[in-house]
Every structure is written in C-alpha cells, then in structure tokens.
C-alpha cells in the first residue's frame, strides 16, 4: 500500500483492479466563458461500523459542497434519486441515473473500525455507462474524515476536468475582531472552505501579510511585535516563530518565499525610501534588487523563480513592473487608468492577479504576464489582497464594507469573474494566502 500522508492518511490503494482505467466521453472543459454546470449525483456513501453512518453522511456532504462550490458542477438533489446505493460493489443501474439527468455518479463507502476510517469511492460516466478511472481508497483515523472528503472531491474534479483540484488545501489569514478603530489582529489558519480554524498568534501585536512556503509547512508574515515592522517566519506544525529580518532602524515587510523555499523577497524602508531585497531564509546573504527614489514593494516570484513582479510609483502613480530575479531593468506591465498593487503570479505562470483602484472603487483583476488582456473580476468599496488557489483557477481576497461598522471578510471568485462566494470565518478576515495542496 502506497503511503501518501504520514500524519493523517495511512494509505491510498486501488480497490477495483478488475475494472481498467478508461477515458470516457465525460469531460468538462474549463473555459473562461459562462458554462452550464455539469449535473452529478452523490448518494450517501454506504457505511459500516460504529459511527460509520454519521461519518458517511458528513463526508458525502463535504464532497458535494466542494464540487458544487466551484460553480462547475450542480448536484442532483437526493430526493430526486430513483436508485438507492446500499451496496458499494453492486452493479450501477445507469438507466435510473440517466432518467434524472445525472451525467456523473459518485458512489462510496465509509468503514469505521475503532478510530480507524477507510473510505472508498468510484466515479461513473452515466451516459457512456462506464466507470471513469479506477476506484480509490483512503485510510486513516476518523478525525481525518474531512480531509478524506476533500481528497475524494479533488480526485473527482481532476477526473472530470483533467486539471488538478484545490480542495485539500489550507488558507492562512489575518483574523480581525473588535471595532474598526480598535481592530485586534492575529494569524489564523483554516481549511480552504473556512472549516477547522486555528489561531497561530495572539492579538497582542499587529500582524500583516502572511504567506505560505512552497511546501506549506512555514509561513512568512510581518509583525509589529517589537513596535517596528519585522519579517517573521513561523513553523506551522510547531507554532514556533523567529525573526529573520531585524536590522536596527530598518522596517521590513511584504515578504514572500521564492519557489525554492530557501530565499525570501521582501521590502525594506530606510530613510523614507522602500526598495526590494532578497535574503536567505536562514539569515544568510542579502541582496538589494531595486534602487530608486520611489516606493517599491509587494514583490512576488514567477513560478519558475526567474522573474519578480512588484508595485512601484516610479512613474508617478502606483503601477506593476516585472524584473529579472537578480534585479536590473524593470518593465512596466500595467497601463490602465487607476492605481495597481499587490500583484501575485499565478501558480500556472500565465496570469498575474492584482488590486486596482479606479474612480473610487477597488477591483480584483487579472492580466497576462506582459500586461495584456486585463480583466477586472470584482468591484466594491474595498477589495484587496488576492491569492491563488493551488490550481490557478480561483482567487481568494478580502472585501471590507464601508462605514464605521465596516468589516473585512474573505471571498473567492473564479478567474472568469463568476462564482463570487463568501468564505465563512468566525470573525472578520483579511490578507488570505492559499497553501499548496497538502501532502
């Protein structure tokens, strides 16, 4: 049995070796146009063992929420089902699922033995009357049932769209509570859908701009713990942190990891001037990449680590620029009316997300890496801080409402501007940063 997760899931193996993987006609092509969501059915997974029925029901509902939450899939209500799945291995009655226009059928089972949980699932192409790939099995503890649900949904999403999923991922963000003029901020981490919130710092010091490492085990952020903005790195598993930039009289902020996870790019302000630097994560060599009498900040690496996009007001207004990873001549890529900031390179490498302020409104938008094909996805009193899902198809950001009682909340939207959805958190939230898929 292949070991895929050391702490949560014990194994992943094929459970239907008699059925060969096949590529059926069922395929959802994701384009930037408006599409009709693909109807699917996911009857409650069958259950065995003490507590199995409750876990099976909860797990099935999370799978459905993941898929339907993309806006690409539409669940056929359980009340409309003609067939009932009571045996995971029983033959599928395709005619019953065709009759309710379910194009995909997901079946599964949850077996509980003590505190151990084994989950199996299969995906069927209803109209071709065949299984879509082989069934899979996940095993671990009952406490990990939610992650297993996300992994099932990721596998289903990948089989039907041909692209990687993003459900088994986490988001680190700044949790905000209290009145607007006395806002308390602390780092928090949660599942991508807002579940399982845990706090990583207390609210004794202002924290800003957390960013995951490429492996998802560390977080960079800016803290005012010393009374002065400094870049910290936090080990997520141990919840241990340390300062990595503490030069006297120098403010450091807006950090991000390089794709190699060993280098950090960030901004320093000294004497009223901000420039961009890189530094070894272990406090080694430090290199200045920009040197201009303007504000240079919000750097973000390209996925191949060869370029950096950043914001600068060197042209008189806040615009986006791209420069080689070692510094040197920077090329301006934003030319629309308004101010551009907080650029983030897509993990696919094809787009850059940004915040734009124009005519008194804030927008989250995307453009090609050469600045072409700018597209605004949102508009509100204040939208800011975009972050990419691991597959580069969804953007999460913070939206603050207007007025003295205004709150900052998290939202997500896909790159076509469709499917704008709130991400529920216990308090307010800002500065989200999406992790890679968990291992």
UniProtKB/TrEMBL annotation:
It is found in: Periplasm. Pfam families: PD40 (PF07676), TolB_N (PF04052). Residues 1-21 form the signal peptide. The keyword Signal applies. Its main location: periplasm. InterPro entries: 6-blade_b-propeller_TolB-like, Tol-Pal_TolB, TolB_N, WD40. Residues 26-132 form the TolB N-terminal domain. Keywords: Cell cycle, Cell division, Periplasm, Signal. SUPFAM superfamilies: TolB, N-terminal domain, Tricorn protease N-terminal domain. The Tol-Pal system is composed of five core proteins: the inner membrane proteins TolA, TolQ and TolR, the periplasmic protein TolB and the outer membrane protein Pal. They form a network linking the inner and outer membranes and the peptidoglycan layer. HAMAP family: TolB. Belongs to the TolB family. Part of the Tol-Pal system, which plays a role in outer membrane invagination during cell division and is important for maintaining outer membrane integrity. This is Tol-Pal system protein TolB. It comes from Aliisedimentitalea scapharcae.
């Amino acid at each position: 049995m292949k070991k895929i997760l050391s702490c949560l899931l014990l194994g992943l193996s094929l459970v239907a070796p008699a059925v060969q993987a096949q590529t059926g006609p069922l395929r959802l092509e994701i384009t930037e146009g408006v599409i009709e969501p693909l109807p699917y059915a996911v009857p409650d997974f069958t259950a065995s063992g003490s507590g199995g029925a409750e876990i099976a029901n909860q797990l099935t509902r999370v799978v459905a929420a993941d898929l339907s939450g993309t806006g690409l899939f539409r669940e056929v209500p359980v009340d409309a089902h003609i067939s009932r799945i009571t045996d995971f291995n029983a033959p599928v009655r395709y005619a019953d699922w065709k009759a309710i226009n379910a194009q995909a059928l997901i079946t599964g089972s949850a077996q509980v033995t003590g505190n151990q949980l084994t989950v199996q699932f299969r995906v069927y192409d209803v109209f071709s009357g065949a299984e879509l790939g082989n069934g899979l099995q996940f095993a671990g503890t009952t406490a990990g049932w939610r992650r297993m649900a996300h992994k099932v949904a990721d596998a289903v999403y990948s089989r039907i769209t041909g692209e990687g999923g993003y459900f088994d991922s986490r988001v680190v963000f700044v949790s905000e509570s209290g009145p607007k003029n006395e806002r308390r901020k602390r780092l928090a981490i949660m599942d991508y859908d807002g579940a399982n919130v845990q706090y990583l710092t207390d609210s004794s010091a202002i924290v800003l701009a957390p960013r995951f490492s490429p492996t998802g085990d560390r977080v960079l952020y800016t803290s005012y713990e010393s009374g002065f903005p400094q870049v910290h790195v936090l080990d997520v598993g141990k919840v241990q942190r340390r300062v990595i930039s503490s030069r006297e009289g120098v403010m450091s902020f807006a950090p991000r990891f390089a794709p190699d996870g060993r280098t950090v790019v960030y901004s320093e302000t000294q004497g009223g001037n901000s420039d961009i630097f890189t530094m070894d994560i272990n406090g080694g060599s430090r290199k200045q990449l920009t040197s201009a009498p303007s504000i240079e900040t919000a750097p973000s690496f390209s996925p191949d680590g060869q370029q950096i996009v950043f914001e600068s007001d060197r042209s008189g207004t806040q615009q986006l620029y791209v420069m080689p990873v070692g510094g040197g001549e920077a090329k301006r890529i934003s030319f629309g009316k308004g101010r551009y900031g907080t650029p983030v390179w897509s993990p696919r490498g094809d787009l850059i997300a940004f915040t734009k302020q124009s005519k008194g409104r804030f927008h989250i938008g995307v453009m090609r890496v050469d600045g072409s094909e700018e597209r605004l996805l949102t508009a509100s009193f204040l939208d800011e801080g975009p972050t990419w899902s691991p597959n580069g198809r969804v953007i999460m950001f913070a939206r603050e409402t207007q007025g003295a009682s205004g709150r900052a909340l998290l939202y997500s939207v896909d790159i076509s501007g469709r499917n704008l959805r709130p991400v529920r958190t216990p308090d307010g939230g800002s500065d989200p940063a999406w992790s890679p898929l968990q291992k």
